[in-house]
Amino acid sequence: MRVLILGGDGFCGWPTALHLSAVGHEVAIVDNLSRRNIDNELEVTSLTPIAPMSTRLAAWEAHTGVAIPFHRFDVATQYHRLLGLLSEFHPDAVVHFAEQRSAPYSMKSSAHKRYTVANNLNATNSLLAAIVEAGLDVHVVHLGTMGVYGYGTAGMKIPEGYLRVKVETDDGDVVEQEILYPPNPGSIYHLTKTQDQLLFAYYAKNDEIRVTDLHQGIVWGTQTPETSLDERLVNRFDYDGDYGTVLNRFLMQAAVGHPLTVHGTGGQTRAFIHIRDTVRCIQLAIESPPARGERVRILNQMTETHRVQDLAKLVSSLTGAEIAYVDNPRNEAAENELFVENRQLLDLGLEPITLAEGLLAEVSDIAQRYRDRCDLEKIPARSLWRAGTGPGVAALG
Amino acid sequence: MRVLILGGDGFCGWPTALHLSAVGHEVAIVDNLSRRNIDNELEVTSLTPIAPMSTRLAAWEAHTGVAIPFHRFDVATQYHRLLGLLSEFHPDAVVHFAEQRSAPYSMKSSAHKRYTVANNLNATNSLLAAIVEAGLDVHVVHLGTMGVYGYGTAGMKIPEGYLRVKVETDDGDVVEQEILYPPNPGSIYHLTKTQDQLLFAYYAKNDEIRVTDLHQGIVWGTQTPETSLDERLVNRFDYDGDYGTVLNRFLMQAAVGHPLTVHGTGGQTRAFIHIRDTVRCIQLAIESPPARGERVRILNQMTETHRVQDLAKLVSSLTGAEIAYVDNPRNEAAENELFVENRQLLDLGLEPITLAEGLLAEVSDIAQRYRDRCDLEKIPARSLWRAGTGPGVAALG
Q1: A172-197 per-position pLDDT tens digit
Q2: How many angstroms separate the CA of residue B357 from the nearest CA in chain A?
Q3: Shortest Cα distance, chain B CAs vs residue A373, angstroms
């Protein structure tokens, strides 16, 4: 299949591009390098020394003989570049990662809120409008987030996108229907993903665009078999307070002798997936598209749930690192349960990588290997969800 | 109260500004004149000869002694103008009309879809982000649409924004909860209003912004007591296929001897409200704001429902005009029932103006008076909801 990856330079996009290329798909990448530019803004770098795009692609071609074309433009604002590329490349599938993906970054200031809303919604709408204008039948595979559901659902298992509800009518009859799961986003970033869902539902209904929305958990791990081939192919590793995600942050904090920073009580339960499963899930989604005219297919792309404090204790027991409880910058419940349905990807053949399987060592190795590149000042989370609330930055100094 | 009207030059915004000024509020207007500019693009003008903004405001001041300041900028893109104005004017309420409001216009082309999404969502988000950044406690009153609900709800009365549902849990218990009514938008324009709802819900939850969302029916009528004071204050009257709304279009078609163009069977039932009730509803909403921290207050701003074919027959019987059934450009059900709850505005004191009350004559008088300004070529609806479907433009020449 011909697959266009929007956002193919990012943490999930890059290993996805290589994996799909490795299994024989014809891949092209679009990216405006926004993630590297945000590193410049935040004065931080990936812990791993990621190579420039041309070096990455030359290394991939050297190892595999396969060239991946790269188009540098902004999907949200350069519509005619996108339209032209779609018409020329004629993809069977477009994987849409072209969104600002950090919740804390989206809450840093009014400018960050506005950038996240404008970038994410205009990118999604431009893609869908371009597919309609080009008159193509393209399967859109979008990276959503478990965060669209919100957390804390009274012990109920979170279904895959749709919820069966009963409504009492005026004359006392009960009507049963399936609705999009009522969204409850916890940040501006998560909000944009709930608004994306409405865009997808509309274009699937009006224009019969085929869409798969993958509601992904928190990704852990760094490398895939493809990014491990050559240091020039190394994937990015974010450890800073904005883009670093919880488990990778703990492993990296342990590697540099920093206490494991748990926000609040650590009683939050979250869904997780390993980066190697992310790329396989996307392959599975691409290779079995929904039929034209079908409603949006929503899959929960996660493999296990853990309480944050349990992850901290696990990493602490493996490494001897201390745990530091700091104020939670997020406006969220201190404690929650989380049960998630993920039957569809398992049925498509996913064999999950679990925390138990020793891949924690891979992340620890990466963190150890590049520990000298770490700027300790960048570890604390500094975004405020609301004026007057704040993370315990001072406590960690 | 100090009230800032975003979009105060438009069909609803202008009479709202005058009405709120007349009842004693301190009003200021923001507008980028986008509606007049779209007239230029569509090569059409308001049937009524609307005066330039400075002439309008000079006439209002001449009649009442009250000056209404006017700020010409784009809420969606000129954030710092908006932030500065909020900080300086310190409004108690902001009435947000600053959105592209035509469903057919939003479907004309990819460019129109992208403009509508970018304008409407960035305007709403900028307003909310600016209120947070300015640290103000402002009541946002937003013009939503009955179209967020979709049409055809199995005979059920549409509630005001929230739906009580029952969900069966995994262990067979039944949990009851109230959710935002599951949206079912019929155009890109309507879609943006369903996405606005998620913005409002998020900022109401995270930042305790007070929001009232008025889900308005189709507005009919032209003039209010204030816009009737002086011809320089006359309200706009849209009769074209994009911005003209059904009842006003019928009355105007009758006035110029054009057949009444009914799309499809005319079996669609729609909710209506007179422009004089619109401005009173907004006054009622402003004068009883929700408490800080309360969820978004959603009111259905409509007073009666009618089947389109019945309206055509009514106008035909009053005027002798013929009825022409043409293809429906919209991707929608041919026939639907519609029952709507509107208790909250009635409880606040609204005394509805109904079709029966002779105000049809006001619209007919306006249409007769300015019939020479009509361009018959602009009457047919020419937007296509989907490639390959089309309105019966040819049939009408």
Answers
A1: 889 898 999 999 999 999 999 999 99
A2: 30
A3: 35
Mean predicted lDDT score pLDDT of chain B: 94
Residue that the structure tokens 């609803």 belong to? B12
The per-residue pLDDT for range A287-311, each reduced to its tens digit, is 999 999 999 999 999 999 999 999 9
- A205 as an active site residue: the answer is no
Token digits of residue B237? 């009257």
Average pLDDT score over residue span B373-379: 94
Catalytic residue among A16, A45, A145, A278: A145
Cα-only R_g, chain B? 21
**Domains contained in chain B, CATH given:** 2-391 (3.40.50.720)
Terminal CA-CA length for chain A: 51
Q: Give the integer Cα–Cα distance in Å for B12 and B238.
A: 12
Question: Does A364 score more than 60 pLDDT?
Answer: yes
Q: Which of B113, B149, B151, B193 is catalytic?
A: B193
Contacts for A315 with CB less than 8 Å, ≥ 6 apart: A247, A250, A251, A254, A260, A321, A360
Q: pLDDT by residue (tens digit) across B25-40? A: 999 999 999 999 999 9
| CA gap B149, B159 in Å, rounded | 9
Would you say A294 and A137 are in contact if contact means Cβ atoms under 8 Å apart? no
Residue B157 forms contact with A (CB below 8 Å): yes
Helix (H) or strand (E) holding B3: strand B2-6
Report the share of chain B in percent with pLDDT over 70: 96
Q: Would you call A313 a catalytic residue per the annotation? A: no
Instruction: Please give the pLDDT value at position B384.
Output: 85
Task: Report residue A59 as tokens.
Answer: 């290394």
* Measured distance CA(B220)–CA(B176) in Å, rounded: 39
B window 96-125, beta carbon within 8 A of A: 109-110, 113-114, 117-118, 121-122, 125
Q: From B344, B18, B123, select the one nearest B115 (Cα to Cα).
A: B123
Residue in B closest to A182 by C-alpha = B179
- Name the strands in the sheet holding B297-301, side by side, starting at the edge strand that comes first in the sequence: B70-71, B26-30, B2-6, B93-96, B139-145, B210-216, B297-301
- Residue A393 pLDDT > 80, yes or no? no
* Dihedral of the alpha carbons of A287, A290, A291, A293, in degrees to the nearest 10: -150
- Quick one: what percent of chain A has pLDDT higher than 70? 96
Optimal mutation site among B167, B330, B338, interface A, most CBs of chain A within 10 A: B167
3-state secondary structure (DSSP) of residue B274: strand
Question: Cβ contact (<8 Å) for B385 and A206?
Answer: yes
CB pair distance less than 8 Å for B199 and A191: yes
| Contacts with A, B 176-205, CB within 8 Å | 179-180, 182-183, 185, 188, 191, 194-195, 198-199, 202, 205
* Residue B145 designated active-site: yes
Instruction: For helices A53-64 and A13-22, give the axis angle rounded to 10 degrees.
Output: 20
State how far the Cα of B367 lies from the Cα of B254, in Å rounded to an integer. Answer: 9
pTM for the full predicted model: 0.96
CB within 8 Å of chain A, chain B residues 49-78: none
